[in-house]
Each structure stands twice: as structure tokens, then as C-alpha cells.
Design a protein that fits this description.
Layout: E1 5-9, E2 12-16, E3 36-39, E4 48-55, H1 61-75, E5 84-88, E6 93-100, H2 103-110, H3 121-127, E7 132-138, E8 146-147, E9 150-151
Parallel strand pairs: 3-7
Antiparallel strand pairs: 1-2, 4-6, 4-7, 5-6, 8-9
């Protein structure tokens, strides 16, 4: 069985890479955090980020877009969260990329107004094809003075 997946978006066929775990099912979600699987290390020094992969059930794409807007409204209240992006890869595939100056800021986000949206486990199960895949990342390098073509 291949761990790649072909999807269609705007009439184009695209192949997803070997991640995320598209074979995950709801029995595999994190017992402490129903609705998603957590990957990667935590509590290492340095700048941090999350990459979160969200696969909507067909017909639930607009519901997922609203969920992402709810998260965005929450992270706008979190002074240490950012940059933050909601992204769409295909008709049903969405992602979040968010960065933090350190692990303490990432933990503050987890319990803050943006991160608390992932406590809505019944909504996650209603709109997602499989548990959200949350990847903890270390930020190694970056370009920080420009955001979407504008100096910040």
C-alpha cells in the first residue's frame, strides 16, 4: 500500500507526500487530546512551530474553513503566536503553520484562545476524515523582516 495520496483541487491532480499519516483513524487519536495525533519532540531549546494537517470529509470543507477562522480570531489575541497561516492544499486538504519564539509560547498557545479550538473534539470528528496531524517543529532558519511581500 502506498503512503502517497492523489487529490484533486481546481481541476489539477496533486500527489501528497508520505506525510501525514492518512491511514490514521479515530481509534489512534491522542488519548489526552481527542481529535488529533501529536508528532515530534517538545521542550527542546529554540524557536518552535506547529504544522497541522487537516483533511476534511467531503462536503465539510466550509465547516473546516470556519474552524480555521475561529482559530485565527483566537491567535490574534495571543501576543507570542505568529506568524500564523491557514492554508489550503486541495479541495479537502487544509493546513496550519504557526511559529513561536520558544516552547513556553507554544504551550501558552495550546491553552490560549487559538489552541483551545482543538478541544472541540466532537466538531473535529464531524468535519475531519481522520484525526488532525499535529507536528511539533524546531525553527532552524528563517526570513523574518518580510511577510507576504511587505516589510514588517
Amino acid at each position: 500500500m502506498s503512503d502517497h495520496k492523489t487529490v484533486k483541487y481546481a481541476g489539477e491532480s496533486m500527489t501528497l507526500g508520505p506525510n501525514p499519516n492518512t491511514g490514521a483513524d479515530w481509534a489512534q487519536d491522542d488519548p489526552d487530546h481527542s481529535g488529533f495525533l501529536v508528532h515530534g519532540l517538545d521542550d527542546t531549546p529554540g524557536q518552535k512551530a506547529y504544522y497541522i494537517h487537516l483533511e476534511a470529509k467531503p462536503g465539510k470543507e466550509e465547516l473546516l474553513q470556519g474552524f480555521l477562522q475561529d482559530i485565527n480570531a483566537g491567535v490574534n489575541q495571543e501576543p507570542m503566536t505568529g506568524p500564523w497561516f491557514a492554508l489550503r492544499y486541495s479541495q479537502t486538504t487544509f493546513c496550519i503553520f504557526e511559529a513561536f519564539p520558544d516552547v513556553q509560547a507554544r504551550h501558552a498557545h495550546d491553552s490560549g484562545p487559538g489552541g483551545r479550538n482543538f478541544l472541540r473534539s466532537e466538531l473535529l470528528k464531524d468535519m475531519l476524515a481522520y484525526p488532525a496531524q499535529l507536528y511539533r517543529l524546531d525553527v532552524l532558519h528563517g526570513k523574518f523582516g518580510v511577510m507576504l511581500g511587505k516589510t514588517i
